[in-house]
Amino acid sequence: MNAIQLRHMIMDAAEHVPFYRRHWKKAGVDLTRIYSSVPLEFLPVVTRDDLLACPPEDRLDRRYRGSALHSELSSAPSGESFEFPTDKRTQTRRRARFWQALRDIGHVPGERTMLITDDELPTGAALLRRLRVDTSLDDEAVFAIYSKFRPTLVCGPLSSLSRLAARVAASSESAWRPRLVVSTAEHLTDAKRALLESTLGAKVADFYSTPEQGLIAYSTPGVAGYRSLTDEFVIESPQATPGKSGPGRLIVTDLVPGAMPLIRFDTGDFVMRDLSARGTTFAPVPISAFSQREVVRVDRKIRPVRVPARTVGALDGNLSGALGA
To answer: Which of 206, 216, 274 shows the shortest CA–CA distance to 242?
Structure first.
């Protein structure tokens, strides 16, 4: 991806996604400027409240009308839910990012992997020695499964891992110790990392993702900072760049848009950047730490949906769209 491709993607969204055409017009954006300037610098950010206020069909790339999509529910800061669709290609890319990141931190395919998640695993997961544990199970049930399965890798929300660690610490018997632990969904502080490592006896990695975009960045045990997936996203954080102080809000743009492109999406989270580094649009200054991570409620009971062309056909006149485990 380069600047020319990014400009083409923005023009593509303006043509095919009603939400962006209206959102940018309201902000007074002149799209002809993208031929003479860095295209992201003058586009407004997109918040979850913006998405909530928009009819679901307006957020959809019109070329996906009539396609079989999967839909999930996320929540805006107000607590109200909004729907976002994902296509099959996007789901496949999310799963691939997740498993590639696990390999990058030292996971070996075929090792016993325990995933504490609401998401269903694909068919054949058991043959790959992957076990799903539902987050709704109580602590005793999770501990019993953990002790019997004896996973090499444990991955799950920080709150679930913390409860498992507490149950391991309370056990009167010598508990199983995995080789790797991956925390997701919540803010992993140094203190919480140290607690997990001392109790479970394994190094801890942190995976950062959003419900709307999947895995975006991750840390490797023993290595400072986070690796951002810049092949998939443009990552910005105003006020967190060299020469400026304080954390910056994390803004993310899809470089491989699917059924619902997100351009300058405000994640609601804040990051610190490596002040000693220099970056560009497509190789930004590395994230050194997360200073705040917003907890977003997500309905993980994914349901298939099909958007008929006639549902949004009337919009044509307005157009002159971990966990991937």
So the answer is: 274
pLDDT per position as a tens digit, 204-232: 999 999 989 999 999 999 888 899 998 89
Per-residue DSSP letter, 120 = P
Is-contact 184 322, C-beta < 8 A?
yes
pLDDT at residue 307 is higher than 60: no
Residues 6+ apart with CB under 8 A from 51: 19, 59, 76, 82, 84
- For the entire predicted model, the pTM comes to 0.84
Domains, the chain = 3-318 (3.40.50.12780)
Strands (E), 33-152: 68-75, 81-86, 113-116, 130-133
Residue with tokens 């110790």, as numbered in its chain = 177
Buried b vs exposed e over 295-311: b needs ≥16 C-beta within 10 Å? Answer: ebebeeeeeeeebeeee
The tens digit of pLDDT for each residue in 22-50 reads 999 999 988 877 766 667 888 999 999 99
N-term to C-term CA, the chain: 26
CA distances from 237 to 40, 93, 234 (A): 12, 24, 10
pLDDT at 262: 95
**Distance of CA 86 to CAs 39, 54, 259, Å?**
25, 17, 6
3 state SS of 175: coil
Model confidence pLDDT, tens digit, residues 243-287: 555 688 899 999 998 999 999 999 999 988 876 666 665 666 788
Residue that the structure tokens 């050194």 belong to: 288
Which of 59-63, 83-87, 297-301 is predicted with the least confidence, judged by mean pLDDT? 297-301
Question: Distance between CA atoms of 43 and 40, rounded to whole angstroms?
Answer: 5
Contact partners, residue 174, CB within 8 Å, separation at least 6: none
Of the candidates 198, 163, 160, the residue with the CA atom closest to the CA atom of residue 182: 160
Question: What whole-number distance in Å separates Cα of residue 262 and Cα of residue 256?
Answer: 10
